[in-house]
Amino acid sequence: MANALVIIPTYNEVENIERITRNVFSLQRNFHILVVDDNSPDGTAALVETVQEDFEGKLFLLRRQQKEGLGTAYISGFKWALDRDYDYIFEMDADFSHNPNDLIRLYNASAKGTADVVIGSRYATGVNVVNWPMSRVLLSWLASKYVRFITGMDIHDTTAGFICYRRTVLEKINLDKIKFVGYAFQIEMKFKAHLLNFNIEEVPVIFTDRTKGISKMSKGIISEAIFGVLTMKIKSLFNLYEI
Question: Where is the Glycosyltransferase 2-like domain (predicted)?
Fold first, then answer.
């Protein structure tokens, strides 16, 4: 039984999902994978079921009825993991923007170190992003700077989605009180861990934009992150923010 679970949310990732799962299972450390699929019309879930035949007891599939947002997909995955005996629970994209080889580095920073939350950070040692246009790099970098300034978190990559959580962190956070469903979910989870005084560390990684499939980024997601963070911080100052 592996003590580490990698949660991969999917929507129309049929071009990537088999490669990413086989890559993770080829690592020297034993990871399990939970794919949380939002009823992808391209057959992602059906392909996962086929791949499961090669990885019985290691690859799991959680089917959802409709597309409900990244945050709710991860929360469903977190609850699934907490119902089982996993000590380290990861967030990772399906599109290879997160290098599966870095899973071991994130795992070691927590399992062999003192980190409760480990962030695969694009900005801990400069800007480590490949294949993004300069406008998007600048937007992402400024967003992380903005969130760091508003929240007071000592984190360079506040919007990162490549993360390892110790089980105790997810047990402590009230997952039913998470407000955001888009990429601001990533900020909110870090902020709650910060308020609960968990040790958050960053491990530098190189982020490579997807080469297959379509990005899920939108103006609405960016707006949620910018304005939602300010509301979140103000509520925390007046003890109105539920952790």
Answer: 6-173
Rounded to the nearest 10 degrees, the angle between the axes of helix 184-195 and helix 70-82 is 50
Please report how many Cα atoms fall inside a 13 Å half-sphere around the Cα of residue 167, on the Cβ side: 13
**DSSP notation for 86-132:** -SEEEE--SSSSS-TTHHHHHHHHHHSSS-SEEEEESSTTS--EES-
pLDDT tens digits for range 4-15? 999 999 999 999
CA 46 to chain centre: 23
The whole model's pTM is what?
0.94
Residue type, 166: R
Tell me how far apart the alpha carbons of residues 76 and 72 are, in angstroms, rounded to a whole number. Answer: 6
- What residues form DSSP beta bridges with 5? 32, 89
Could you give all domains of the chain from N- to C-terminal order, each with its CATH number? 4-237 (3.90.550.10)
Neighbours of 181 (CB within 10 A): 17
